[in-house]
Amino acid sequence: MSQTTHPRSTHDRSDASLAAAGGLVVFAAVMLIIGGILDVFRGIMAIANDDIFVSTPRYVFRFDLTGWGWLHLILGVVAILVGVSLFKAPLWARIVGIAIAALLIITNFLSLPYYPFWSVIAIALYAFIIWALCVVRQDEMTG
Q1: HSE toward the beta carbon, residue 141, CA cutoff 13 A
Q2: Cβ(52)–Cβ(46) under 8 Å?
Q3: H/E segment holding residue 69
Q4: What is the tally of structural domains in the chain?
Q5: Which CA distances in Å does 35 have to 19, 54, 112, 119?
Q6: Please, what's the largest Cα pairwise distance for the chain?
Q7: Which of 26, 43, 91, 140 is most buried, judging by how many CB atoms fall within 10 Å of its CB?
Q8: Higher-confidence residue: 1 or 14?
Q9: In the predicted model, what is the mean pLDDT of the chain?
């Protein structure tokens, strides 16, 4: 009797892990799209009116805020595109999603003096996205 229940419990576990894996990738996709949209808006704000941001005169990584705006705008657009492609959960989109989220963490860290509150929130958001994309194994996605 234990033979008949063992394969079934293994099958149930694989169905549950497949559902959890799919849920994490969808979570990462949605959060990457939302984060990308917010970065696009942040980039537009910096490009259009860079006096919104706090100016730090002695910051080591001091750049023109318009330059920071373009960087956030471009990475935000790429994040949106990768987030949309994550709904099909291909491996390349997960890898690129991790890379984009890592770049956005670095970008937000470097822009901490200009917009500290949002930068900390964005760093946490992108860290969760990286976690969600890394915790899922490829064999869980393919079933």
Answers
A1: 19
A2: yes
A3: helix 65-85
A4: 1
A5: 24, 21, 16, 11
A6: 74
A7: 43
A8: 14
A9: 79
